[in-house]
């Protein structure tokens, strides 16, 4: 277990072994608050398991420091150390073993919070964001793009022929096809900046900030390649992933709902047709794979 102790020059904070009694399971690094920003950046992937702050600081300073730590390391719990007076110390001036237990409790609490947040925001089948999370996060991203006068792309997609897979091979196979398509759809986008979600059923959506190498045509091409690569081994059925794209207008900002509606309408204008005649053969009912903008053939 690795702890990072943030101090402000106080003598009792300068030496970690005088602050925390270690039972052999804690390694404690020390950093001065004055060099906090540079110190956090230098940590890189070597994040601590917990960050310790002095609770005796003024409230404004404590809040500001905690915020800087959470922005740099959102998944690391922050623990406030109590007053390090003589009443709370052993004869050598060190913290009691209770501090080690407090650190472990903070870690467990952080893990529980992360699990609850995941369940609230993620789709259980695909691991993508769910509808609720998409609307919240995409709205924030859209407002930021409006302020920066940048174009936003909204990709609305669905998996054609899912009902036929469910009817012929069972819903377990349909779930597998959805998961494969979702993986291909997600791999096209940037996991750090783009908002990718499953709206429900066979519908997927993504909000992307447009850039030089992130045009609608380029991303659609990547979707086709990515989804096809994940379905190349399936020979029992063929599917198409149909995608509609809407682009925001910086001169007349649109709401998220308006962009979603435009992308949805674009999807159905380009959606392949299915022969639903009674008694149609497998060849008749197979989804067409003719060239369509953003319609990707999948072998799921």
Based on CA atoms alone, the radius of gyration comes out at 26 Å
Number of domains: 2
CATH architectural grouping of the largest domain: 2-Layer Sandwich
CATH topology of the largest domain: Alpha-Beta Plaits
**Global geometry:** elongated
CATH superfamily placement of the largest domain? Reverse transcriptase/Diguanylate cyclase domain
Task: Give a brief rundown of this model.
The chain is an alpha/beta fold and 300 residues long. It contains 11 helices and 9 strands.
Could you give the topology of this structure?
Blueprint: E1 2-7, H1 11-14, H2 16-19, E2 27-32, H3 36-43, E3 50-54, H4 59-72, E4 78-81, H5 98-121, H6 131-147, E5 152-159, H7 162-169, H8 171-187, E6 195-200, E7 203-209, H9 216-230, E8 239-247, H10 256-270, H11 282-285, E9 295-298
Parallel strand pairs: 1-2, 1-3, 3-4
Antiparallel strand pairs: 5-7, 5-8, 6-7, 8-9
Helix pairs in contact: 7-8, 8-9
């Amino acid at each position: 277990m690795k702890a990072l102790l943030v101090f402000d020059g106080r003598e009792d904070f300068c030496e970690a072994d005088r602050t925390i009694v270690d039972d052999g399971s804690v390694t404690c690094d020390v950093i001065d608050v004055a060099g906090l920003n540079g110190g956090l950046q230098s940590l890189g992937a070597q994040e601590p398991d917990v960050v310790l702050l002095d609770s005796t600081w003024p409230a404004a300073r404590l809040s500001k420091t905690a915020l800087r730590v959470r922005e740099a390391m959102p998944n690391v719990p922050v623990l406030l150390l109590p007053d390090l007076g003589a009443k709370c110390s052993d004869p050598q001036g060190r913290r009691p073993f209770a501090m080690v237990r407090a650190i472990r409790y903070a870690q467990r609490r952080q893990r529980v919070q992360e699990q609850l947040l995941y369940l609230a925001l993620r789709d259980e089948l695909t691991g993508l964001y769910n509808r609720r999370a998409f609307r919240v996060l995409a709205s924030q991203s859209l407002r930021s793009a409006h302020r920066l006068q940048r174009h936003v792309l909204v990709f609305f997609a669905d998996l054609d022929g899912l009902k036929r897979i469910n009817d012929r091979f069972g819903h377990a196979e349909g779930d597998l096809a959805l998961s494969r398509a979702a993986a291909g759809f997600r791999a096209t986008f940037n996991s750090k900046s783009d908002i990718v979600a499953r709206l429900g059923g066979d519908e997927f959506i993504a909000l992307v900030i447009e850039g030089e190498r992130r045009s609608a045509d380029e991303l659609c091409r990547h979707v086709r390649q990515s989804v096809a690569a994940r379905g190349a081994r399936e020979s029992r059925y063929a599917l198409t992933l149909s995608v509609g794209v809407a682009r925001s207008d910086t001169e007349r900002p649109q709401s998220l709902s308006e962009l979603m509606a435009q992308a949805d309408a674009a999807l159905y204008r380009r959606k392949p047709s299915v022969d639903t005649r009674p008694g149609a053969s497998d060849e008749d009912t197979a989804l067409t794979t003719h060239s369509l903008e953003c319609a990707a053939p999948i072998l799921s």
